[in-house]
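User:
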Amino acid sequence: MRFVNYNYREKKKEKGNSGMKKLLCLAASLVFIFALASCSAGVSVPYRMVQLANRYSEIFDLESGIAAFREKLTYPDFEYELYCETAKSGKLTTYNISEKTDGYTMNACDGTVVMERGGKKYFLLIISGTYSGFADEYADFAHPLDAGSHYQVSSKKRAEGGYEVVYKAEITPQMAGELSEYGVVLGEYIFSHLVVDEKYRALSIEYSTGKGEGERKLLTRTFEYYDDARESFENMPKNRDAKVKIVYTGGRTAEFAVPEGYHIGFYMPDVTYEFYTDEDFKVPFDADNTAISGEITLYAKAIGKKA
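Assistant: Predicted structure:
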């Protein structure tokens, strides 16, 4: 199974689940239909324009002067925070990322990804794909609640610049099924109340559902933008004294240097593997209950490729 990509945009709320929080993987299945807004009041602010302006490539455009941003998401029963700054990986531009929610933190910096949950520290092994690919999975402004065709309800100019605008999207049968965890109901609407600056960059978004705006609040997102980095990533492990050797079917091997005493996770965006401690694939590797010390050999069994 995929250990991480613990992305709030795909997060399934869990009640009492002691295992690693898993993904909804909505990003691959949701179809975003960007309708040019039909404006009933105020100036027209096309929803498509807002979506384009909040792509990471636009936020971190050289002319924007933005080096980092922080997003805070407040749900009825928990909060989540994401910090992102630009970084270099060779000639590629990538991101350093920090995310925090109750009982869980993740830091990704300069090609290294570590997590902490339940008092245990995890070091991510990039089995397939790249660090840049991992970081890029966070480079998506869209939230599952942004699904559907959006129509502008109202808008007004702000004295300090920018706009305050409300959109609504009718909940379709597909949306009702995929977003049931949020409490949406077929035949009602998702309302998105946005505050954007003069460049359509999001400052806040309030989501609600019902027949009218604000009937049942779902989520509030707030954004802060900085002209310099704000996180130091000082807690990243400096020593990697332990070793994990992975043996694949056919004899191919890979070795990873990991911090002593850490548990390990696996990033597998392309091919899914199961890991065992014996070459006959009879004893599954228990990542949650195995802190790495010295050297360990694992045997990888491919169970499928991602579409």
